[in-house]
Design goal:
GO cellular component, one term: membrane
Region (Disordered): 344-365
Distance between the termini: 48 Å
Pfam families: TPT (PF03151)
Radius of gyration: 21 Å
Number of domains: 1
Oligomer: single chain
Domain Sugar phosphate transporter: 19-312
Membrane topology: Multi-pass membrane protein
Length: 365
C-alpha cells in the first residue's frame, strides 16, 4: 500500500510539473508569436508595450487586493525615496529591454529574435562579473564563448537577416543583462520587501511606463495621433478590435510572469531554466513550420552551440546549488531571457511561527 501511494504521488507530481511547464510554454511562446503577428498590421510597438504595462499593473493591483483580503496582511508599499532611488534603475532597464524587443519584431523574424534574445545570458554573466555577483571561472568563460560563437554562426549569411532589427534585439539583450543584474540586487534587499512577484510587478510597471513614454513620444507619437486605427479612427469596430488585441497581449504578458512564478514555486528555478532551453527549440521549430522562417544547417549548428552554452550554465548552477547544501540566495542569474523577474518569497512577519516557503522566480519581454 505504501509503495502504491508513493507511485501515485510521483505520477501526480510529474503530471503537475508537466502541466505547469505547458502553461508556461503557452504564455511564453504565445506572446512571442502574438507580438510578431500584431506588429505586421499595427506598427506602433512602443504604444503596444505601454498598454501591456498598464494591463499588467491593473492585474497586479487586483491580485494584491485579493491576496490582502484573503490573508489579512497589508501589502508592501515603498516610500517615494526608496521607490525612485532603488526601483527606478531596474524599471528603466526593464522598460528598454521589453520595448526594444517588441520594436525589433517590425524588422526581423521570430527565429532570429529567439536566437538573439537567447544571448541575454551572455550579457547577464558579463554584468554579474562586473557587479561581483559571479566569480570569474574558466567554465564561465567557456559559456560566454559558446553562446557568442553560436550567435555568430546563426546570423552568418542568414537569408532573412536585418541589421536594424538585429541591432534592436541585441541592444535589448545587452540592456537585459543590466536589467537582470539590477533586479537581483533589488530583490536581495530584504528591507524593501519586494520578494513577492506580484509586489515587484506592481511597483515596476508605472516607472516602466514613464521610462518608455519619451521614446514613444519621439518615434510614434505623431504617427499614432494621425493614424486611422487609433486617434483619428473612423470605424469604431476597428478601434475596438485593435484595443482588444492590445489588451490580449497584456493578459499574455501578465500570464507569462505568473506562470513562471507558479512553475518555480511548485518545482524549482532549475526546472524553469531547463524548460526555457526546450522552449527556445519549440519556438524555432514553430517559426520554421508556421511562419516559413528559413533556417540553414549552419544556423541550426549555431543554435545548438548557443544552447550548449546555456545548458552548461544551467548545469553549473545546479552543481553550485547542490554543493552549497542549504538553499540560499544564488549569486548567478537564471538562463531564461524572457522573463522578466527573479523572485524570492517574503520572510515571515514578526511573531509568525509558520515557516516561509522559499521561492525563486526568473524571468521576459
Amino acid at each position: 500500500m505504501g509503495r502504491w501511494a508513493l507511485d501515485v504521488a510521483f505520477v501526480w507530481r510529474a503530471m503537475l510539473t508537466l502541466g505547469l511547464v505547458l502553461l508556461y510554454y503557452c504564455f511564453s511562446i504565445g506572446i512571442t508569436f502574438y507580438n510578431k503577428w500584431l506588429t505586421k498590421s499595427f506598427h506602433f510597438p512602443l504604444f503596444m508595450t505601454m498598454l501591456h504595462l498598464a494591463v499588467i499593473f491593473l492585474f497586479s493591483a487586483l491580485s494584491r487586493a485579493l491576496v490582502q483580503c484573503s490573508s489579512h496582511r497589508t501589502r508592501v508599499v515603498l516610500s517615494w525615496t526608496d521607490y525612485l532611488r532603488r526601483v527606478a534603475p531596474t524599471a528603466l532597464a526593464t522598460a528598454l529591454d521589453v520595448g526594444l524587443s517588441n520594436w525589433s519584431f517590425l524588422y526581423i523574424t521570430v527565429s532570429l529574435y529567439t536566437m538573439t534574445k537567447s544571448s541575454a545570458v551572455l550579457f547577464i554573466l558579463i554584468f554579474s562579473l562586473i557587479f561581483k555577483l559571479e566569480e570569474l571561472r574558466a567554465a564561465l568563460v567557456l559559456v560566454v564563448l559558446l553562446i557568442a560563437g553560436g550567435l555568430f554562426m546563426f546570423t552568418y549569411k542568414s537569408t532573412q537577416f536585418n541589421m536594424e532589427g538585429f541591432a534592436l534585439v541585441l541592444g535589448a539583450s545587452f540592456i537585459g543583462g543590466i536589467r537582470w543584474t539590477l533586479t537581483q540586487i533589488l530583490l536581495q534587499k530584504a528591507d524593501l520587501g519586494l520578494q513577492n512577484p506580484i509586489d515587484t510587478m506592481f511597483h515596476l510597471q508605472p516607472l516602466m511606463f514613464l521610462g518608455l513614454f519619451p521614446l514613444f513620444a519621439i518615434f510614434e507619437g505623431l504617427h499614432l495621433s494621425t493614424s486611422e486605427k487609433i486617434f483619428r479612427f473612423q470605424d469604431t469596430g476597428l478601434l475596438l478590435r485593435v484595443l482588444g488585441s492590445l489588451f490580449l497581449g497584456g493578459i499574455l504578458a501578465f500570464g507569462l510572469g505568473f506562470s513562471e512564478f507558479l512553475l518555480v514555486s511548485r518545482t524549482s528555478s532549475l526546472t524553469l531554466s531547463i524548460a526555457g532551453i526546450f522552449k527556445e527549440v519549440c519556438t524555432l521549430l514553430l517559426a520554421a513550420h508556421l511562419l516559413g522562417d528559413q533556417i540553414s544547417l549552419l544556423n541550426w549548428l549555431g543554435f545548438a552551440l548557443c544552447l550548449s552554452g546555456i545548458s552548461l550554465h544551467v548545469a553549473l548552477k545546479a552543481l553550485h546549488s547542490r554543493g552549497d547544501g542549504d538553499p540560499k540566495p544564488s549569486k548567478g542569474l537564471g538562463s531564461n531571457p524572457d522573463l522578466e523577474l527573479l523572485l524570492r518569497s517574503s520572510q515571515p512577519e514578526e511573531g509568525d511561527n509558520e515557516a516561509a516557503e522559499e521561492e525563486d522566480f526568473v524571468a521576459q519581454g
